[in-house]
Design goal:
Helix content is 26%, strand content 24%. By secondary structure, the chain is of the alpha/beta class. A nine-stranded mixed β-sheet has the order 5-4-3-2-6-1-7-9-8. Strand 4, helix 5 and strand 5 form a beta-alpha-beta unit. The longest helix has 12 residues. The radius of gyration is 18 Å and the shape is globular. Bound molecules: NADP nicotinamide-adenine-dinucleotide phosphate. NADP nicotinamide-adenine-dinucleotide phosphate binds next to strand 1, strand 2, helix 2 and helix 7.
Length: 234
């Protein structure tokens, strides 16, 4: 395969929301889920986020557990997986967590909407910047580039727009969701898959691989992308 194995991980409420209508990055994961996510990061070669999550939430995307970082080092890997951001305009603050909390290799895919001055300053910060020619980043090409950089296992940590763009292009192998026993409601609160959506006949079909019921009231759902008739749905 000329791209990495790609999986999405989300934390969502029972009504399918990945944030509240305020879009301030509401906490959804339980303590146990945070440990699970940390382990998934530690097992990945890179962690990818979309532009809004990157610029509005400024995630660290590092492995929190010291022992998991030590295990990676013992396997000859870097302490943290590569951080990857995809955004049309990479106005990332020089003092951001994304750029400064590490150590981690950092890769940005962007377009010519990002000024040359900004690109130079990111590169001076040791960020590897790939500038795509079109109005958007060509996602299949970005994944090929990541594979070329040694990324075999890519974790996608949202948000909903990024998730759906990748899903729609058939670039996602698995989806794992932690479903918290909460309801956020709100027509404008984001869900796991945003964008314009598809009509019913073009629904993206999943195959349920595993379900775990947790003592904290949460549920883990693990899906792989399947063919249309795998589950007898049309
Ligand atoms: N609970 C969870 O698991 C979880 C995880 C992550 C995020 N979230 C939530 O998700 C929300 C953010 O999601 P979102 O859907 O608004 O945004 P998002 O998916 O984080 O980012 C979308 C942006 O990514 C960039 N992008 C995506 N595809 C691109 C392409 N092909 N080329 C260039 N740029 C591309 C665009 O940035 P530009 O704007 O630069 O064009 C686009 O507007 C927040 O509320 C956050 O809290 C929840």
């Amino acid at each position: 395969m000329n791209r990495p194995f790609v999986f999405i991980n989300v934390a969502m409420t029972a009504d399918g929301k990945i944030d509240t209508f305020e879009r301030k990055g509401a906490a959804i994961s339980s303590a146990k889920d945070k440990e699970r996510v940390d382990k998934l990061r530690a097992e990945s070669d890179a962690v990818l986020v979309g532009g809004h999550t990157l610029l509005d939430e400024d995630p660290k995307l590092t492995v929190r557990s010291e022992s998991l970082r030590a295990e990676r080092l013992a396997r000859g890997l870097s302490a943290n997986p590569m951080k990857v951001g995809i955004t049309t305009k990479a106005d990332i603050k020089p003092d951001s967590n994304f750029l400064n909390i590490g150590p981690a290799r950092i890769v940005i895919f962007t377009t010519h909407q990002t000024s040359m001055e900004k690109i130079d300053s990111l590169r001076a910060h040791h960020v590897e910047v790939f500038v795509h020619e079109g109005p958007r980043v060509d996602l299949p090409s970005a994944l090929r580039t990541l594979k070329g950089l040694g990324v075999n296992r890519l974790m996608v940590e949202g948000g909903g727009t990024m998730n759906f763009e990748l899903m729609k292009l058939g670039l996602v192998d698995e989806v794992t969701a932690y479903v918290a026993p909460m309801v956020f409601g709100g027509a404008n609160a984001p869900t796991m898959a945003e964008g314009l959506g598809v009509p019913r006949e073009a629904a993206l079909h999943l195959h349920l691989m595993d379900v775990e019921k947790w003592d904290d009231g949460g549920v883990i759902l693990k899906y792989k992308f399947g063919r249309k008739n795998d589950n007898n749905y049309t």
